[in-house]
Amino acid sequence: MNVNDSIVVVLVSSAIFYGTPLVFAALGELLAERSGVLNLGVEGMMLMGAVTAFWSVQHLSGPGWLVLLLATLIGGLAALAVSIIHAVLVVGLRANQIVSGLALTIFAGATGLSSYVGNVGKLGGQPAHHEFNALNVLGLADLPVVGPILFHQNALVYASWALVLIAMAYLHRTRTGLHLRAVGESPQTADVMGVNVARYRYAHTLVGGLFAGVGGAYFSLAITPNWIDGMTSGAGWIAIALVIFAFWRPEMTLAGAYLFGLFSSLGFVLQARQVHLPPEVFASLPYLMTVVVLVAVSTGWAKQRLGAPAALGTPYVREER
Amino acid sequence: MRIQRRLTTPRWLVVAVPAASLVAAFAAAAIVLVVAGKDPIATYSRLLDRAFLAPGALSGTLVTATPLLFTGLAAAAAFRIRLWNIGGEGQLYLGAVGASGVGLVLHNQPAAVIIAGMIGGGLVAGAAWATIPGLLKAYFNTNEIITSLMLNYVASLVLTYLIFDSRSFWRDLSTFSARAFPQGKPLPDAASWPTVGAGLAVIPFGFFVGVLAASALWLMYRSTIFGFQARVLGDSPPAARYAGIKTRRLVVAMMALSGALAGLGGASEIGDFRHVLDPRGLQQSGFGYSGIVVAALARYNPFAVAVVAFLLGGLANAGYSLQGPDFPAGLVGVLQGMILFFALGGELLLRYRVSFQ
Fold it and tell me: Domain B37-193+204-327, what fold?
């Protein structure tokens, strides 16, 4: 038997495949939270991305790669558009961030706008005209072990790796990144320094929306290339939990996302190998593991809210500082 | 434009702002309808007709409003003290599992015993499910938003499992078609909750239980020591600790209370309406999430929850009965989300005075 068919290699490469949408969504949420804005609307934004990206591949014509690129962008922009509502409510109108985020998920999510768009566009039950396929990077896909894991993934996986590197450099190596961290930790100080707090919060909430939309597009263009109402089934919420596991550090979102990708794929891989358990047991693993890991990081060494931006969740009003 | 913090909020504004946000939401959703090529006025008049005016509409609206009343109270009880239990959906599922289980076990008892048992079963199962995030919040300081939400997905899978696994007590295996297409065991006739006919509408028993629960919740917050301690905890956790309030116990108790209310909603879904454990129907209704909208729009006041549950129950009821190519699923969620957005924006007017100079 080929080493690349061994269960470990299959599990690791599918963990990366299933974890990638979480990387995008968690990275977006991380940037928003670093500016002090908690956005619980990730699930809704991802579903908007999923449905609009799918609509785009069905209606745009052109070379496959271009259609996929445009569709992913459109998915991101649609999610960005709905994130504007949250930004205006919490930054401009000082609304409660938790309730506003929940409202965004109800508005855009399953049985909301994403479902409306999908039903009006009659997108259900169609196979996608284009989908993201695994690439054979530099012809190295057949290398033992590392081939399938590193060189046989789709384009969005490589894009997510680039994005993590960019986010790391942005947060710690640029002036805007420094300002962003100041806005999230102490908006008063940032304001005194001459940083426009509201502008930073708006911008990063919208970037969070864009990334969540790309993560959503991954569901309808790569994981299951079709559209089903509510197809992200909680990935947006897991992404919010991931930001906590990652201690608000971009590089850590990769590890967390792949861990959850592993739990998502475990069911498929084990069932294909004749392990018989009720399918609901496998399906509930990612959710249960989210709870378990969240408990682990909220005790012990993380007691002092390690990494959480100090101003997370609080509106900044200059007159009331 | 100047924005100043208000010291007192005028009473009329507390009613006017949510009412205005309802109107504004419908106006904004009209844009969505126009973009989708639908006539908003025709859509809304059909919606109003199916929700409140058509023969039998009021009864249907009350059936939909009843679970919303319970999940709205569940969210209001917890949100009021800044305990973000968004697991109402899963707690309702578990309440339905508990109530139908008790109903099946007690099948040859008199109706009063079965109904009391179902209420108890729903209450306990919902409370138990909510106690999990409650304990994690109290003893490990784990974010209850995410844990309670994750458990919604687990509860949904538990529901599916109980109907699809052939060893399950809830599954009906008595007929050939039930063996081929998994479905729940129907409850005995005595397990159907009574209804009260009142002129134009038939009021389900669960609705009365809900109004009773709303009154109890209002009294609890207004005139019990427990309710007072909960309010202190909500306003300032350090103050509650310095005052010697046992905050951990309080958090667990309040989560359990919130879950019990949602669980009652599940019991009423079984007793008033479905009479069988029906995962698909429960999962599609999304009462737990709509309950959050109800609670927020009611500004966490139990009696206002009853009024808002009735209004949004009408919207949801009309949404189901009109669903089709003309009226795609999703519109109800869009409207609910918009109502909540406007209500949240309107909060600014309650807390601040906006003047133009």
Answer: ABC transporter involved in vitamin B12 uptake, BtuC (1.10.3470)
Let me know: does A152 contact A10? Beta carbons within 8 Å: no
Residues 200-219 in B contacting A (C-alpha not used; CB under 8 Å): none
Q: Which of B276, B283, B282, B281 is nearest to B171 (CA)?
A: B276
Could you tell me if B277 and B96 are in contact, meaning their C-beta atoms sit under 8 angstroms apart?
Answer: yes
End-to-end CA gap in chain B: 6
CA distance to partner chain B, nearest, from residue A88 (Å):
9
pTM value is 0.92
Q: Is A113 on the interface with B (CB under 8 A)?
A: yes
Instruction: Reply yes or no on whether the pLDDT at A87 is more than 90.
Output: yes
Which whole-number Å values give the CA distances from A289 to A78, A217, A259, A268, A272, in the listed order? 30, 24, 9, 17, 22
Could you tell me if A292 lies within 8 Å of chain B, comparing CB atoms? no
Name the token pair of B93.
Answer: 């599922």
Decide if A298 and B142 are in contact by the 8 Å CB cutoff.
yes
Q: Report the distance separating Cα A296 and Cα B142, nearest Å.
A: 9
**Strand residues in B78-232 grouped as ranges (E):** 195-198, 201-204
Across B104-110, average pLDDT:
92
Residues A38 and A102 sit within 8 Å (Cβ to Cβ): no
Closest CA to B126 of B164, B153, B152: B152
Q: Are the C-beta atoms of A26 and A239 separated by less than 8 Å? A: yes
Residue position matching structure tokens 């578990």: B94
Q: Does B165 touch chain A (CB under 8 A)?
A: yes
Segment A146-205, tens digit of pLDDT: 888 888 889 999 999 999 999 999 999 999 999 999 999 999 999 999 999 999 999 999
What ipTM did this prediction achieve? 0.89
Domain total of chain A: 1
- The answer to whether B339 touches B21, Cβ cutoff 8 Å, is yes
DSSP tally for chain B: helices H, then strands E: 15, 4
Give B-chain residues touching A116 at CB under 8 angstroms.
32, 36, 328-331, 333-334
A50: nearest Cα among A27, A21, A28, A30: A21
Q: Is residue B254 a contact partner of residue B161, using CB atoms and an 8 Å limit?
A: no
Whole-angstrom Cα distance, residue B283 to residue B90?
9
State the nearest Cα–Cα gap between B134 and chain A, in angstroms: 12
CATH number at residue A220: 1.10.3470
Whether the CB-CB separation of A217 and A159 falls below 8 Å is answered with no
- Region of B184 (left: φ > 0; alpha: ψ -120 to 50; beta: rest) is beta
Residue range A295-301: mean pLDDT, rounded: 76
Which residue is it, tokens 């009853």? B306
Count other C-beta atoms under 10 Å from residue A20's C-beta.
28
Q: Which residue has the tokens 């201690």?
A: A247
Its domain, for residue A285, covers 3-320
Expressed in percent and rounded to 5, the helix, strand and coil fractions of chain B are 75, 5, 20
Helices (H), A144-249: 146-150, 155-173, 175-185, 187-192, 197-218, 235-245
Alpha-carbon gap, residue B165 to B297, rounded angstroms = 40
